[in-house]
Give the backbone structure.
Amino acid sequence: MTPARVTALLTRAACGLPLFFWAAVALAQLAPEPPSGVASKKTATGQRFMVAAAHPLAVDAGYAVLARGGSAMDAAVAVQLVLGLVEPQSSGLGGGAFIVHYSAADRRVRTYDGRETAPAAARPDRFIGQFGRPVGFIDAVLSGKSVGVPGLLPALEAAHRDHGRLGWATLVEPAVALAEQGFPVSPRLHAVLEWDRWLARDPFAAGYFFDGSGRPKPVGTILRNPEYAAVLREVANGGAGAFYRGGIAADVAAAVQSGGGDMTTADLAAYRAQERAPVCGAFRTYRVCGMGPPSSGGIAVLQILGILERLPHTDYARDPVQAVHYFAEAARLAYADRDRYVADPDFVRVPVAGLLAPEYLAERARLVSADRSLGHAQPGRPAGATASADGVEADLPATTHFSIVDAEGNAVALTSSIEFAFGNHRFVRGFLLNNELTDFSFVAAEGGRPVANRVEGGKRPRSSMSPTFVFDAAGRLVLVVGSPGGHAIILYVARVLVAVLDWGMPLQAALDAPHFGSRNGPTELEAGTPVARLQRDLEARGHPVRVREMTSGVHAVQRVGDAWVGAADPRRDGAARGG
């Protein structure tokens, strides 16, 4: 695929991620069209452990930790810090994360919330401009007002404190070494740099990512990031606190304030990662667990699965139109509830139990017709519902996900983000700041009622990130999965779960297969795949249809017999490796 083609597709998709789509010859056997220099994805198998992540260098770092006896959480620290270096458009020290951890010894799932927070001074009218209207999205992204207090390092540190085996400083070393020695610019990073029109405005980013003529450095150019290495050395010696106090914090706050933001060093010093209760539910004979609020991912994925379980069983291979119809309708209903009820649980009462109650899911499933789309679903009225009106986030993903299982059977599903591609486009000490506060609703009230996901000081914006575990009827961990993809993450994860658990597809085939679904708007079909041919049939059932590029990045690990199988999404640069 040529750079010009990538750029054209990026522009059409209105998001900061390149698209590597493929021409399919069958649902389970798609022929990927990889970018130059990136091998087609292949399933990896390991008898003891497995790591699947969005960049081969990050996979290698995690593999090395697992091979020396490290835990899944040890490997997660190493993988994430390398990803922040080699995939800077997607995640990093300036962003946040959700971590779902499984302990094999006590069969316990624990979740860690490293979502960014709004500065204490933030107010509900933060993104309201002249004449009382919301500002343009890109204007908001590039403003210092979009930057949330980063949460990645405290979440990693908290989870490592509970589940780590190797020393913290040891786990930082791979990223430090790589930052000092350098790494090659990947085709994907180069393509996103070619697409981006704003990053070169930051002088520090311009000197790092671009050449003297203002062009992105070519594929294969070795990038060295000594500033990132220096920050990591401070973090290795002083823990996450070294980032949140002192010179690093002062530089972050100054960069935010230079763009009109109001973050202070006090906001940074006050940040705390939170341990949250996981959300779990049944799907056929399986138990599925994910991240709870402020992520909407766990609830929405479980609602989609729960509604589908109550509809007539369909299989894409036998009846693709019916399968897509039911999946889209279940997703439509889940997104309607998500938009109405889910926000930061420290600020809004989220009716988690009511949204996942079997009787409520049955009530929602009864709204689905076998042959006619709802078009636009209304939110239901679950038990405990008190929240308000809808808030809308844009689908502009710059996120990453990885899945890890160690030799003892402990596992990590970790999704991290800086939101837009290259986040807020401010490059501080070798890392980019996030623009996660644009995940808040830009309006504070609708119809005279306060919006649940409105901006408030200290609040965490709603997310769609969906790191997920699946357990079989015997309680054994059988699947670890998640994806980037902005607002559409929920669709990607739920579709892969249905493909594996309900349709019996092999893991890699499930990741390769076309995406589809609805976010309570058009029914979306992945461009360049067989599912796009279903447009007319679905429109005949009343579906408003949009064919578009759907750039997921699903990375998953599955138990198959006595081995672990890892798979990487062919739409990105990732890989899987096991031992």
Observations:
- The longest helix spans residues 320-341.
- Confidence is low (pLDDT under 50) at residues 1-40.
- DSSP finds 19 helices and 25 strands in the chain.
